[in-house]
Amino acid sequence: MKIQTNLFFVGISLLLVWNCETKPSNVDSTLLLPLLQMDHSTPNTGSETPTETPPGAPILNPGVWLADTVKSAPGHTGSGIGNSNNAVNGVRGAGLGGGGTDVFSLAYTLANDHIILEWSGHKITNGPGIDFIVFENAFKVSNPSTYFMDIVIVEVSNDTINWCGFNPNYRFTPKTTYSKNPADWPRFAGRNSVLFHETTKNFGYDPSLVFDTANSGGDGFDLEELSEVSNSAGGLGCNSSLRDELKNGFTYIRLSSASSVRWKNPDTNLAFLKEAISNGPDIDGVYARYRAVR
Predict the structure, then answer these.
(1) Got the DSSP string for 115-146?
(2) What is the pLDDT of residue 61?
(3) What is this structure's pTM?
(4) Comparing C-alpha atoms, which of 262, 73, 236 is closest to residue 163?
(5) C-alpha angle with apex 99: 168 to 163, nearest 5 degrees?
(6) Do 169 and 186 touch, CB atoms closer than 8 A?
(7) Spatial separation of the C-alpha atoms in residues 250 and 10, rounded to whole Å
(8) Is 187 helix (H, G, I), strand (E, B) or coil?
(9) Given a cut of 50, is residue 11 above it in pLDDT?
(10) What DSSP string describes 40-61?
(11) Helix or strand or coil: residue 243?
């Protein structure tokens, strides 16, 4: 009788252990939610990471990756809008009708007309849709087609010597007259307002939302549209082989003032036109969608 009783209590104990381990907890799950959510009050520079893509591997998961390192900024002064860190410390747009102030300003001479950025330890790769967005603080002035713009030429590279761009084309007629319509400046950056903001409008860093420029603003670029053209509007050293290499992954991005002495409009052999009161593009940052370990 004693043996039977002991077996009974052993059985009851095992049932209780099983029940405690398998039955859902009575703890309110909503209390755990903050522990599961990422803190995105600071820019996503890659520490909070979807599955990484090794070099040469197919695209796995998109992310929202901030260009976090300044490779070169000849115009850097270390203070105010001359501080190149402003181009890698997050994007803080001022909305459709305003220009942001957390920016790095470029000018029009070879000594201060560009900035080169990179993503620490990573290359930016090609995937479906927009691959990266350049944020420069253009803003709407009046009707839907009138903007204040500081136009930017965008190029990518793996060695900072040879570059491929997107064959930008000023298409307004006559080409000696400046247009305030972003549509007349295809494949340039610096055309559209910056709507994205790290703390007030970051869309939860959801790639499907951030890389919709109707949400975030800025100017989106698809590596499928990278060009082999090398002319007075960019692409120094580019050819079809380099273009194809960079489509599969680039390390550096160069943003330069389109109206710099560095460039000329291939159609006129003159400098690209600019706003009469413009003093150079203001770079807020660059976000990329797909990356791989170098």
Answers:
(1) EEEEBTTEEE---SS--EEEEE-BEE-SSTT-
(2) 77
(3) 0.83
(4) 236
(5) 30
(6) yes
(7) 65
(8) coil
(9) no
(10) -SS---SSS-S----TTPPP--
(11) helix
**Residue corresponding to tokens 């549509």:** 183
The CA distance from 40 to 48, in Å, is: 9
Name the maximum alpha-carbon separation found in the chain. 107
30 falls in which pLDDT band (50, 70, 90)? Answer: very low
Query: Which positions ≥6 away from 130 have C-beta within 8 Å?
Result: 211, 213, 220, 221, 222, 289
d(CA 219, CA 132): 8
pLDDT digits (tens, 9 = 90+) for 82-99: 999 999 999 999 999 999
Q: Report how far residue 231's alpha carbon sits from residue 208's, in angstroms, rounded to the nearest whole number.
A: 34
C-alpha pair distances (Å), 65 with each of 53, 117, 196, 206, 288: 13, 13, 14, 11, 5
Pairing of strands 152-157, 252-257: antiparallel
- On average, the pLDDT of the chain sits at 86
Among 79, 75, 104, 102, smallest CA distance to 281 is for: 104
Which CA distances in Å does 259 have to 82, 150, 218, 269, 272?
19, 9, 19, 12, 5
Residues 6+ apart with CB under 8 A from 292: 52, 53, 54, 55, 56, 57, 122, 123, 125, 249
CA dist list (Å): 40 to 44, 50, 186, 202: 7, 14, 32, 8
What letter would DSSP give residue 227? -
Cα(1)–Cα(123) distance, integer angstroms: 74
- Residue 168 Rama label (left phi>0; alpha psi -120 to 50; beta): beta
Q: Positive or negative CA dihedral for 231, 233, 239, 240?
A: negative
Tokens of 227: 């060009």
pLDDT at 45: 54
Residue 249 near residue 243, CB atoms below 8 Å: no
Give me the count of residues in the chain: 294
Retrieve residue 94's tokens: 């001022």
